[in-house]
Amino acid sequence: MRAAPSLRRFVCLLLAAILDLACGYLTVNIEPLPPVVAGDAVTLKCNFKTDGRMREIVWYRVTDGGTIKQKIFTFDAMFSTNYSHMENYRKREDLVYQSTVRLPEVRISDNGPYECHVGIYDRATREKVVLASGNIFLNVMAPPTSIEVVAADTPAPFSRYQAQNFTLVCIVSGGKPAPMPTTENIPETVVSREFPRWVHSAEPTYFLRHSRTPSSDGTVEVRALLTWTLNPQIDNEALFSCEVKHPALSMPMQAEVTLVAPKGPKIVMTPSRARVGDTVRILVHGFQNEVFPEPMFTWTRVGSRLLDGSAEFDGKELVLERVPAELNGSMYRCTAQNPLGSTDTHTRLIVFENPNIPRGTEDSNGSIGPTGARLTLVLALTVILELT
Q1: Burial class (CB in 10 A: 0-12, 13-18, 19+), 74
Q2: Which positions ≥6 away from 19 have C-beta within 8 Å?
Q3: Is the model more confident about 26 or about 317?
């Protein structure tokens, strides 16, 4: 009676050995991979050991949290053939050797888990197949595609008498994972500042905050916002740079801007010799310097209202519809300003007669009647006065 348990244990071990001989042994594992960069060639290698006769090797891509497994490659040992399960236009995989798949140019969309399934024939019956599998997660990185520095809340006015906060935004797009910090105390990005004309012993206080916005393709847009109280006397011509490090980059990406007040606006009037009744356009064509951030423009008529009766007009271009002869000698002021400074430009309008239009055909608004045309030509004399 005491030998019964030992006998049962012996019988169980014997049966297990018989079953093992009938099925054969099979182990599968996949060599792990470090993160790869989009565009690189990637090799997925499936290692297996068995004493049985192979039936097939199948590679799967796993999606939707493991609920869907999509075949990408199969090696059929019975006929010694391999084939892809992907459509021709999406076929980018190569079966290098039975259990090894190579992706010549990996994409962000290839990111995710993969499985290798190996099947051998059961020794007891050729109709049964014994399966074993291994898995791996392919981590595909992508370097940022762009970096730029912009000013928030532009265009914005200049204030000589009131301190105002100013914010620069560093926008980094297309990276996966999100851009890595270069220092411990400033996440995502590093913002540095140079002061060519720094005259105070203490630097201003800066406030840095950041945000992340995931995209549908798996990349992340990162925004780093730098805010401080602007001092136009100090900050004019100051250089700001934004630098981003990323594991998929061999060297950091950088973007920089220089804060500059507008100076010397260039005014263009069309047509250069317009007649009364024509539409006259006065446009700020540019500046004597590179201006950042974008300025705002305000037009006024010195000593009177604009042609449409308004006190001022905001925009880069002032349009005077059907100019009347009464505008002869009128002066127009364009004020260009950004948070760093302000400058004014004055343009005088001189009106001449239009020989194609008889006198007295204008209505009370200065417009020409249906049977009339203009009485004057327009000549613009531009005088630039700079106020900073």
Answers
A1: middle
A2: none
A3: 317
For residue 139, what are its two tokens? 């981590």
386 — pLDDT class (breaks 50, 70, 90): very low
Tokens 């209505």 correspond to 363
Q: How far is CA 41 from CA 45, 91, 92, 93, in A?
A: 13, 14, 11, 10
Q: What is the C-alpha to C-alpha distance for residues 88 and 284, in angstroms, rounded to an integer?
A: 55
- Beta-strand relationship, 81-84 and 68-76: antiparallel
Percentage of the chain modeled with pLDDT above 70: 74
**pTM exceeds cut of 0.85:** no
**Which residue in this structure is represented by tokens 């004399």?**
381
Place of tokens 């740079």: 241
Length of the chain: 388
**Reported confidence tier of residue 122, pLDDT bands at 50, 70, 90:** confident
Residue 64, number of CB atoms within 10 A of its CB:
9
**Residue with structure tokens 């001022």?**
312
Compute the distance between CA of residue 118 and CA of residue 123 in angstroms, rounded to an integer: 16
Check residue 237 and give left, alpha or beta (phi > 0: left; psi -120 to 50: alpha): left
Place of tokens 């099925």: 23
Closest of 115, 121, 151, 120 to residue 133, by C-alpha: 115
| Torsion 208-259-153-213 (CA) sign | negative
| 138, two tokens | 């392919």
Q: Is 80 left (phi over 0), alpha (psi -120 to 50) or beta?
A: left
| Largest pairwise CA distance in the chain | 137
The count of C-alpha atoms lying within 13 angstroms of the C-alpha of 373, restricted to the half-sphere facing its C-beta, is 8
Q: Can you read off the two tokens belonging to residue 14? A: 């014997």
Taking only the tens place, the pLDDT of each residue in 177-193 is 987 534 333 437 455 55
Token pair for 11: 């019988």
Query: Which residues, 6+ apart, have CB-to-CB distance to 350 below 8 Å?
Result: 328, 329, 378, 379, 380, 381
| Per-residue buried b or exposed e for 190-214, using 16+ beta carbons within 10 Å of the residue's own CB | bbebeeeeeeeeeeeeeebebeeee
Give the pLDDT confidence score for residue 379 in this predicted structure: 34
Q: Are 312 and 157 in contact (CB under 8 A)?
A: no
Q: Are the C-beta atoms of residues 12 and 117 closer than 8 Å to each other?
A: no
Phi and psi at residue 322, in whole multiples of 5°? Answer: 50, 65
- Dihedral angle at the C-alpha atoms of 244, 247, 252, 254, nearest 10 degrees? -40
